[in-house]
Design a protein that fits this description.
heterodimer; A: alpha+beta; PmbA/TldD fold; 2 domains; 9-stranded mixed beta sheet; about 35% strand; globular; B: alpha+beta; 6-stranded mixed beta sheet; 10 helices; 19 strands
Chain lengths: ~550, ~450
């Protein structure tokens, strides 16, 4: 039995009933969320104890992260609440360099004595590792910022909203779905608050308060005669926002064949539409496989960007650190050095961004004390940069880290994780309607579905939530059993049109996984609706 | 908090229950010592260890339940956690699916998966094992990235209705990928163990090294339907998907591959080849697992698929009572009865086919047919006239494990393997499958 099995019923089954895998935390009374946690002055004292203890044992560098992680998870199905989980996790992680090697140790016993002992353990681990010969760690220089702070700009702290209000919202969503004719509906609200204090021997003391929210649902409709069933999930997003995300204004709604959402989300409206969609999906004809021009909505395209652009530009993959698990990357250093590698068509401009308001990746400073920013990854179709942290910056000739270091909790060691990675909108005015008008044989895809990509990020396959056939510039009706397969470079070179900034929206995920032991990262990806020409579409219907 | 013995755990849990004022109270404890070491680019990259323990107390008033957890075990903390669970229970909404806690249960033997030598692994032992793996990589002019972890753990639960359960175990995993310097070859091996003396890091790394060197200069074959030999690690990531979808409630509700029109299910029907028998057995010496489930139900030796027929599905206690069927907990591991041939003999008997080391990035495409997609990785070879002829480029597949087990040609000897996707361990044979559906080529190495 592993730790995660403690909250699941067993290893192999009932996974759908299990809680999401939080960094382990203790269930608490929600009123505890209103406590501020320990004072910043006390955190500084504890941090200094750790830094001094590490230095005294021979560390040439040390950083300490004191973290309080609050999670709230409310799940419902049909007419009842399935679970209300409130968890809190508090502890300290200390990372050091000694004898040129990294060492890490963590403790949830946050006293000066125990923090000092953890720092000493981290140094001992570094020294033990240095016995297996390796090149010494080279850290990019980093100025100390002194005592600074950053906070997600939220209007309503989700943790101050009574649980009853969340339950009422979710049960009204379920009620609307059932009235709309679905057989089953699950809905949930997940909220995260990371209260992180970082200090390093460079002289930074950084206090951050980070908020994220994820409202979602899934509806299922069954045709009892044929035994077939279809599902449609929420078109809302996980966001780096407060509870205000759930109060949609007219300007947040993108109308069209299905209403989609920009900066705020109308969950009730979306579930009513989902009930209609799922009925249509059951009746839709199965797709004819072949080449189609694809029109991809931002609610779908974010995931394709995540897998095929954001992951292969992670420098740790490029260098081989993930070779045994998440994989390496086809965007090798020689391609970047050539300055000519055509990742995509000239329309394709992709930006890495740790600041974007409302995004999951927005923070002031990363988990090794580097102030965050934005930079180009793909410029006019050419690969121009990667995502790097302090001990990698020198490999790509950078004098500073790009601020991409993250750990999912105080108990996990920080490593390179992706920032928000977004496709820039088209420079010329172009609406989605005008884009569709020019398509003879195409499929318009809204919402993300099944996804899979190889370990170097060449070959991918994506599904979606709803698919519309386009015939001679007009939407002809819904299709089902659609998935497209492509090679990353060919796909992005087939990009022939990008809608302008009026259509730009974010999508994202709470649970981007990497590393051994595995860690989760939350990240957003923005785009406007984009056209790709002549993509291979397969039919996924089978009989068993 | 050290690893507790049965007697120590029993005494501690009794003390907790004595504080309870609720209608019912159930307390569980889990503790573990974990260590890991990760390496990449032929050097150690990160390593660490932690001691973890957590106690969960569930209190119930009628159908209202509250759960609180703690990791401090002095008397005041124990009383506090009981009180907090009671406060949360009073605040909770009634759960119509709440089931009273179980009474005393009869469990099979515990601790069969505990091996002292594994429990004694220290950081030096881990470093030495990794050094042996790195040595093979360097001597063969290859680049290694790998991971070794081990855990010693115990769990116990007790409730106010008289139930007490205890188990302790050891275990670990080792996996490594070796790549050629030019990045054109890659080989992988993955092993799970209860007894560390059965893990031969050097032998495992040598297999990965051979696959890496042998997979250079791969040729491209056209996508299509091929006979494949799936090594156990490749078969595991598809076979486990059958288990993840054998929940009785989903089948009864009409939203599972086991559902049939008109609200019926396929339980009792033959779905796969009649040579397929899959069961679980907590006391199998090759793959010992816990004698009890997380909710206190005893685990038994149980057959899930018997000669191709779906024999059992698992359920919650609530669903079993509602449907008036036997309560069946989901298993912690699965065992498929294999054949008598070695992997080499399976290759020898293959006229034309593809040997698959590993399947990767497995995602569901259609839950009604259990259609999954994913790719081959880290050692894919073309077989002709009983011999491995040359390495081939990787493929994407779209296949259902149900269709796959219908197209079974031959099986080898079952062995312990680890799913590279979920980390779950199984005893599986290498399998020869006809008409396995590859839908596109991948340039990935």
């Amino acid at each position: 039995m592993k730790r995660k099995d403690f909250i699941q019923l067993s290893a192999m089954g009932l996974g759908a009933l299990a809680l999401p895998k939080f960094a382990f935390g203790n269930p608490v009374d929600p009123s505890r969320f209103l406590n501020d946690g320990i004072d910043v002055k006390v955190k500084k004292q504890l941090a200094d104890v750790a830094l001094n203890a590490a230095k005294a044992k021979g560390a040439t560098y040390a950083d300490v992260r004191i973290g309080r992680y609050l999670n709230q998870f409310v799940t419902t199905r049909e007419t009842r609440v399935q679970n209300i989980a409130n968890t809190e996790s508090f502890g300290v992680g200390i990372r050091v360099i000694a004898n040129g090697c990294w060492g890490f140790a963590a403790t949830n016993n946050v006293t000066k004595e125990e923090v000092a002992k953890a720092a000493e353990r981290a140094v001992a681990v570094a020294k033990a590792n240095s016995k297996v010969k390796a090149d010494p760690v080279q850290l990019a220089p980093q100025q100390g910022y002194g005592e600074v702070s950053w906070k997600t700009p939220i209007e309503i702290n989700t943790f101050t909203v009574p649980v009853k209000d969340k339950v009422d919202l979710l049960l009204s969503v379920n009620d609307a779905a059932l009235k709309g004719g679905v057989n089953f509906v699950n809905s949930a609200i997940l909220a995260i608050n990371e209260q992180k204090y970082f200090a390093s021997t460079d002289g930074s003391y950084i206090d951050q308060d980070i908020h994220r929210l994820f409202p979602t649902f899934n509806v299922t409709k069954i045709d009892r005669t044929s035994g077939k069933f279809e599902t449609r999930k929420s078109l809302g997003n996980p966001v780096g926002m407060g509870y205000e995300y759930l109060s949609a204004r007219p300007e947040d709604k993108v109308t069209g064949i299905i209403t989609r959402y920009r900066d705020r989300y109308d969950m009730l409206e979306d579930v009513r539409n989902a009930a209609i969609d799922v009925e249509q999906k059951l009746k839709a004809p199965s797709v004819q496989p072949g080449k189609y021009d694809l029109i991809l909505d931002p609610s779908h395209l974010w995931l394709t960007i995540h897998e095929s652009v954001a992951h292969p530009t992670e420098l740790d993959r490029v260098l081989g650190y993930e070779a045994n698990y998440a994989g390496t990357s086809f965007l090798t250093l020689d391609k970047w050095k050539s300055g000519k590698f055509n990742f995509g068509s000239k329309l394709v401009n992709v930006v890495a961004d740790k600041l974007q308001p409302g995004s999951l990746g927005a923070v002031g400073y990363d988990d090794e004390g580097v102030q965050c920013g934005q930079w180009d990854l793909i410029k006019d179709g050419i690969l121009v940069n990667y995502q790097a942290i302090r001990d990698q910056a020198h490999i790509i000739g950078l004098k500073h880290s790009q601020g991409c270091c993250y750990a999912q909790s105080w108990a996990d060691v920080q490593f390179q994780r992706m920032p928000n990675v977004s496709l820039q909108p088209g420079k010329d005015p172009l609406s989605v309607d005008d884009m569709i008008k020019n398509v003879e044989k195409g499929i318009y895809i809204i919402g993300d579905g099944s996804f899979s990509i190889d370990q170097q990020r060449y070959n991918f396959q994506f599904g979606g939530q709803v698919f519309y056939e386009i015939k001679n510039g007009k939407i002809a009706g819904m299709l089902k059993d659609v998935a497209y397969q492509a090679n990353t470079q060919e796909f992005w070179n087939s990009c022939s049109a990008i809608a302008d900034k009026r259509d730009y929206r974010l999508g994202g995920a709470f649970n981007d996984g990497k590393g051994q032991p595995g860690q989760s990262n939350a990240v957003s990806h923005g785009s406007s609706t984009t056209r790709f020409n002549g993509v291979n579409v397969i039919n996924t219907a089978r009989k068993i | 908090m050290p690893i507790l013995t049965r007697e120590e755990a029993q005494a501690l849990l009794k003390k907790v229950l004595a504080y309870s004022k609720a209608d019912q109270c159930e307390v569980s404890i889990y503790g573990s010592d974990n260590g890991n070491i990760r390496y990449a680019r032929n050097a150690v990259s990160t390593s660490g260890g932690n001691t973890f323990s957590q106690m969960a107390v569930a209190s119930a008033y009628g159908k209202r339940q509250g759960i609180a957890t703690i990791n401090e075990y002095d008397d005041a903390s124990l009383e506090k956690v009981v009180r907090r669970s009671e406060e949360l229970a009073k605040l909770a909404p009634e759960n119509p699916e709440f089931m009273p806690y179980l009474g005393p249960q009869q469990y099979g033997p515990s601790g069969t998966g505990f091996v002292q030598e594994t429990a004694a692994i220290d950081p030096k032992k881990r470093t030495d094992m990794v050094a042996a793996s790195l040595d093979i990589s360097r001597r063969n002019d290859l680049i290694a990235a790998g991971f070794l972890e081990n855990t010693t753990a115990y769990s116990a639960m007790m409730n106010s209705n008289g139930l007490f359960a205890y188990n302790n175990s050891t275990g670990g995993k080792f996996n490594v990928t070796l790549r050629t310097q030019d990045g054109t070859g890659s080989g992988y091996v993955s092993k799970g163990f209860t007894d560390v003396s059965k893990l031969d890091v050097s032998a495992a790394t040598t297999i990965a090294a051979k696959k890496a060197a042998g997979s250079k200069s791969a040729k491209a074959l056209e996508p299509g339907k091929y006979t494949v030999i799936l090594e156990p690690a490749a078969a595991a990531v598809l076979v486990e998907q059958i288990f993840f979808n054998m929940d009785a409630r989903s089948a009864d509700e009409g939203r599972s591959f086991l559902s049939k029109p008109g609200g019926k299910t396929k339980v009792g029907e033959k779905l796969v080849d009649d040579r397929v028998t899959i069961y679980s057995d907590p006391w199998n010496p090759e793959l010992p697992t816990s004698p009890y489930n997380g909710d206190g139900r005893p685990q038994e030796k149980i057959t899930w698929i018997d000669k191709g027929v779906i024999q059992n599905v698992y359920n919650t206690r609530y669903w079993a009572e509602k449907q008036k069927v036997k309560s069946v907990p989901s298993p912690d591991g699965a065992i498929m009865i294999g054949g008598t041939k070695s992997l080499e003999e399976l290759i020898k008997s293959t006229e034309k086919g593809i040997l698959v080391t590993r399947l990767w990035y497995i995602r569901e495409v259609d839950p009604q047919t259990l259609l999954f997609t994913g790719l081959t990785r880290d050692g894919t070879f073309y077989i002709e006239n009983g011999e491995i002829k040359y390495p081939i480029k990787n493929f994407r597949f779209n296949e259902s494990p149900i269709i796959m087990l219908n197209n079974l040609e031959e099986m080898g000897i079952s062995e312990r393997t680890v799913s590279g996707e979920s980390g779950i361990e199984l005893l599986l044979p290498p399998m020869k499958i006809r008409d396995f559906t590859f839908t596109s080529l991948s340039d990935a190495v």
